Amino acid sequence: MTTTTLAVLVPLLPALGALAGLLLGRRAPGFVRPLAVLPTLTAGVLAVLVAVRQGGGAPVDAVRELTPTGSVPIELALHIDGFAALVAILVGLVATCVQLYSTGYLRDDPRYPSYAAIVSLFTSAMLLVVYSGDLMVLLVGWEIMGICSYFLVGHYWETPEARAASLKAFLVTKLGDVPFLIGLFALATETGSFRITRILGAVADGGLDHPTLIALLLLAGVAGKSAQFPLHTWLPDAMAGPTPVSALIHAATMVAAGVYFIARLLPVFTASRAALIVLALMAAVTMAGSALAALAQDDIKRVLAYSTIGQLGYMTGALAVGERGAAVFHLLAHGAFKALLFLAAGVIIHAAGTNSLAAMSRMPGLKSRVPDAYWTMTVALLALAALPPFSGFFSKEAVLGAAEHAATGHEGPVPGAAGWIVLVAGLFTALLTAAYATRLWLLTFHSPLARAAEEPGPLAEAAAGQEAAAEEARAHGHGKQPAVMNLVLWILAVPSLAFGLAVGTIPDWFDGHSLNPTLTTSVLGTGLALVGGLVTYGTWRHTTAMALRVPLGAVAVNRQEGAAAVEAEAITAHEPAYGDIAAAPDPADPGRLLLGPLHRHAVSGFHLDAVYSALFVRPVQHAAKVVRFLDREVVESYVCAAAVLPRWFGAAVRRAQTGNVQTYLSALFAGSAVLALAVVVLAHLNAGS
């Protein structure tokens, strides 16, 4: 079987699995899980075979014209280089893990068949984006992911949070897709093709007349899809969907698509220095702002959501300094440890019965109840904090090293300002990332009540009571996870720990540029990460006493239910319990002390939703009310008035219909007489003339 045939099967198999799952989901429920897992697993294996055959060498290209257009042709084209080959492996791995995890997580969910089918379609769409060599075909996968995200984020459609989040995700991403589509057409018009290879050839020959305009139009779509400032606000709210969906969206699909798109077409962006400066500023604001917001969140999944936004900022920052190898390297490393973080969070939410860090910080023994999640999440958080030797250290240092090279003038056409912007923001974000990763780990697994139970007093009695309740729940199997969920965690822990060791061979698959850590950025980045972690730990030790003195009601739900049902109830219960979907009034939260007066702004994402509501939502609503008034009071008035005269005439005619034969005969004779008289008068007038 040829490499081209294998590559065609990679996105095709999950699509066929999705179709079969939708058709057989209700008629043959026993086939649902195999149809969800096996096609995706097979696609992942085939992606590995494609990568082995491609081997980081010459790209694999295949093309067939889809339809003649009379101008710019649309072609079914494959373009598989080292970037595409490795990203496809990541998509296959994460999607397979998500499907396996979901068989346990949503085992009691009545809508699991449709959920699994949409996840398969989602996976197929991302693989189509990865392998496509034509921008119009890429756009098909791009838009399919958008509609799939709408259905998956809104899976718990009974809850208002899920309904609002799914609609928001769809609308915000579509807001970016409109200029994105215009940019694609403009790019094809100037280069004469939608084929990626031809576009890159035309750019190399100076065939772009308006590179800045085209690059900025395309950046709008990337900002929406990859949740970059200012179109990032949909991603934290999307946490209202099931946890496996969050893992898939954040690790290997959707948000990764925008970064991958820029990496594919990087010469288009490097043709404009202004576009690179804009991209660098977008990355810097995204990195720093999202890290500050993550430090203030109470929902464990919202912490991870803002973390994803920040890590995507690192990737776009690497692209802003012209180093797509570092960007995709970080995309691959981040995909593994972020999928692990979300799936471990799903286990924790099920066991704790809450998504609130404030509530978890008052639950002694949570660490011992979920040992697999504890150890694997610890690995993933160390990778997120970019501490050696975990994978995140090598990939993040590749980004910072590329920024340093650009800042010192070693990256050719890349403006030095872009390098300095990305470098400073990246180092600042490294400090904050370690801080919020440490905060999440301490609040989740290290309750001060565990130590209080060892000391005599009323706090010990309270802690012992909570521990006894936890032991009883564990004895009855409440909050216990299926084995497949824990198995997936350990699978993802391997690349989270060891993928960074491939730093020496990865460049052979990319552009050949070294991705090894540089001394300056390694010392600065690791040092700042250690400072962030230690300061957060010291602050947590200081606020521990407040946690002991100030009890906080836990957002606890019935853990006898399945993991998906527990999560849906926990999300719904958070705002009624604490008055906010993102925060909790917890004086023992170290993030509150670290951020100080900035905390109330950070917890709401710096009020961007309120700004957008004031600038766009409310004006559109008021305009809609005006249009409705004009339609009802003006347009409909003219339409109704046009019917008044015929209605009056009809009423007059209706009065003549009495049903009396004598009246009808009299009217007949009277009419005949009038007609006869008219004839005589006309004849007389004609004779006289």
Classify the helix fraction into a percent range.
Answer: over 70%
> What characteristic shape results from the CA principal axes?
globular
Contiguous helical run count: 30
Strand content: under 5%
User: What class would the helix/strand composition place it in?
Assistant: mainly alpha
Mean pLDDT: 88
Distance between the termini: 102 Å
* Alpha carbon gyration radius: 32 Å
Low-confidence stretches: none
How would you write the strand order of the largest sheet? 1-2
The tally of beta strands, per DSSP, is 2
How would you characterize the largest beta sheet? 2 strands, antiparallel
Task: Write structural notes for this entry.
The protein is an all-alpha fold and 689 residues long. Helix content is 73%, strand content 2%. Strand 1 (60-67) and strand 2 (74-80) form a beta hairpin. A two-stranded antiparallel sheet has the order 1-2. Helix 3 (82-105) runs antiparallel to helix 10 (243-251) and helix 10 (243-251) runs antiparallel to helix 15. The protein is built from 30 helices and 2 strands. The model has no long low-confidence stretch (mean pLDDT 88).
Brief overview:
It contains 30 helices and 2 strands. It has helices at residues 3-24, 32-54, 82-105, 112-131, 135-153, 160-191, 196-204, 211-225, 234-237, 243-251, 255-264, 266-270, 273-294, 300-320, 324-352, 357-360, 366-369, 371-384, 391-407, 416-445, 448-452, 458-475, 483-498, 519-549, 563-578, 590-595, 599-602, 608-642, 644-656, 661-688, and strands at residues 60-67, 74-80. Strands 1-2 form a two-stranded antiparallel sheet.
